[in-house]
Amino acid sequence: MGNTNNTQGVTNIRLIKWLTYMMFLMFAMTTDAVGVIIPEVMKTFDLSMTAAGLLHYGPMTAIALAGIFLGFLADKLGRKKTIILGLLLFVINSYLFIIGNAFAFFLTLMVISGAAIGIFKTGALALIGDITSSTKEHTSTMNAVEGFFGVGAIIGPFIVSYFLTQGVDWKWLYVVAASLCVVLILIAVKVKYPETMKKSEEPINVKRSLAMVKDPYAFGFSMGAFLYVSVEAAIYVWMPTLIQGYDGSLLFIATYALPIFFILRAGGRFLGAWMMSRFNWAVVLSLFSFAILICFLGSMLFGIEATVFLLPLSGLFMSVIYPTINSKGISCFPKSSHGAVAGVILFFTAAGAAIGPLAMGAISDAFGSDAKYGFMLATVFAVMLFAGTIYNLIVDPTKKRLQELDKSEYDILEN
């Protein structure tokens, strides 16, 4: 009987991991397809870039606010209930896309979609701690999860582009995502999730989440996430603008620069899952952040030919940064607090995705709408990110805390 229960537990863990992978793939299909959707919306509703850009900034803001104000739900209600709640909201909201045809209506739905993503993503991030047996496995699993996110980021724009060539409206992407989400909910309802016991009588609420921002570990890793996402968003928001009109010898790379970036980022994350289970995470983080900095500096110093090659290449080095920052930040806290800290890091992540490109656009506009100046700001972000990883490598502030939590927290699968 004991062996049967153990086998069932292993099966549940594997199924839960695949459910988590599919959740990240599914929501990436919608969030990372916005860059393809915005030109269609601009054309349909005769909007400016600033107005149409709300389709990106709106959901990112909603994800940020849901992370900081609703992240505690994963600790209070439990991972399973929180994930299903977020997925249900996402499904209902996504199906509503087919009944409307106004920009304000679409923007409202995208904002609600962002809130739903914020809810189930914090639940999923907290769950990863429950289904891994060490902080090292946590980081490896997080890289695999973000690898599937990277695959979704490729699939979503492809589906929209295909729909448009067939005369199908872009909003049917949300119907596809919602239908996939229904399947995930049905499976999630049936699966038994591991239980994470609350270890104190401290109230689990918004106030607790907000107080967590003051914790040096939560704040440090959150700022790392903010800087990284600001650098990454520079690529998928403004790189096409920076290299538009290029007609040199690397025209093929320039034409497919964004898909190349996404493919390298996704592939690199699966490679990162392997690397993080075998090498020192602080060393890998420092080396890869340095490589990102070289790509950005090279693109600024050596002209458009270097830019066309180096900026897409940076996706390979960006691959492991965010999942590792996210994983180590969450792993610095007891499992009973994983929902709250995941929400805090998610807040800074989404804030970086919104504020970084916005600041780059403003600086570019101030210098005659030249995207090169915005990328100078992104290069500064890359310098700051590299400096942070070097500090982490030399000082190693998390070593003791991670070792203690490895011994006291990551024993759920063995018991």
Explain this structure to me?
By secondary structure, the protein is an all-alpha fold. 80% of the residues lie in helices and 0% in strands. The chain has 19 helices and no strands. Helix 11 (216-243) runs antiparallel to helix 16 (321-331) and helix 14 (281-301) packs antiparallel against helix 15. The longest helix is centred in the middle third of the chain and has 31 residues, at 135-165. The protein is globular and about 55 Å long.
List the helices and strands and how they pair.
Layout: H1 2-31, H2 34-45, H3 49-52, H4 54-70, H5 73-76, H6 79-95, H7 103-130, H8 135-165, H9 172-190, H10 206-212, H11 216-243, H12 251-255, H13 257-276, H14 281-301, H15 303-318, H16 321-331, H17 338-366, H18 371-395, H19 399-408
Helix pairs in contact: 1-7, 1-8, 1-9, 4-7, 4-17, 6-7, 6-9, 7-17, 8-13, 8-16, 10-17, 11-15, 11-16, 11-17, 11-18, 13-15, 14-15, 14-18, 16-17, 17-18
Quickly list its features.
19 helices, 0% strand, disordered N terminus, 415 residues, mainly alpha, single chain
The oligomeric status of these chains comes to: single chain
As a percent range, the share of helical residues equals over 70%
Briefly note the structural class of the backbone.
Answer: mainly alpha
Measure the end-to-end span.
15 Å
Q: Major sheet, described briefly?
A: none
Strand content: under 5%
Main location: membrane
Protein name: MFS transporter
Subcellular location: Endomembrane system
Family: Belongs to the major facilitator superfamily.
Structure summary:
The chain is mainly α and 415 residues long.
